[in-house]
Design a protein that fits this description.
By secondary structure, the chain is of the alpha/beta class. The protein has eight helices and seven strands, in the order αααβαβαβαβαβαββ. The longest helix is centred in the last third of the chain and has 15 residues.
């Protein structure tokens, strides 16, 4: 299921901020040269992420799942002076490409890009985060959520991508991936420590604010 058809997508992109040239380049190269290019955030979702980051003006961001760095750079646009984004990914094959993109960015010095198992790295992080973005292996969403929760400041935001799972959550699909997404969404709905809502942006962004 396409949540937003191409006509509406083009309309939305027309009436939001233009996509920076480096991000256009990353989008184009990802679609031409990288497996599963649909994992990339893209223009409209990227501008949503950028806007949220600018509204929060965070000093510390944690991103779980870098892919080709598109969302990383969108989040970096909102960082406060002296701010930093730590971005974690397990895919060593993309590391050289992604570091090359970051090197071309004005935010290069604000990006701490680490390759490794996020569930092993997160407990070692001695930071308090204003924003956490979870966009990695979906079966581990709740584990990531539990791991980062105490590292998020009061009033901070956790954002989780792909929570509508191409609309399969509406069809009550019984496959394991869809069940994992639905179970995660149910757990967040029951969590009274947070305020929450799902934005039907691209594949669904769960916006979770710590009370």
């Amino acid at each position: 299921m396409e949540l937003i058809n191409e006509t509406l997508k083009r309309y939305l992109e027309h009436y939001c901020e233009p996509e920076p040239e480096l991000l256009k380049h990353i989008d184009r190269e990802t679609n031409l040269k990288v497996l599963l290019p649909r994992m990339l955030s893209g223009h409209y979702q990227g501008r949503v992420i950028s806007m949220i980051s600018k509204l929060v003006n965070p000093k510390r961001i944690l991103e779980i799942g870098t892919f080709t760095g598109y969302a990383t750079l969108c989040f970096a646009e909102g960082l406060a002076d002296g701010g930093k984004i730590i971005t974690l990914d397990i895919n060593e094959e993309l590391e050289e490409r992604v570091r090359g993109y970051f090197d071309q960015s004005e935010y290069k010095e604000k990006i701490d890009y680490r390759i490794g198992n996020a569930q092993e790295i997160i407990p070692l992080l001695d930071e308090v985060f204003d924003i956490v973005f979870i966009d990695a292996d979906k079966k581990s969403n709740y584990n990531y959520y539990v791991q980062v929760f105490d590292k998020v400041r009061k009033g901070g935001i956790i954002i989780v991508d792909n929570v509508l799972w191409s609309g399969k959550v509406l069809e009550n699909k019984s496959d394991k991936d869809t069940s994992n997404i639905m179970n995660f969404n149910d757990e967040i709905a029951k969590d009274d420590r947070v305020e929450k809502l799902i934005l039907p942006v691209r594949d669904g962004l769960f916006i979770i604010r710590k009370k």
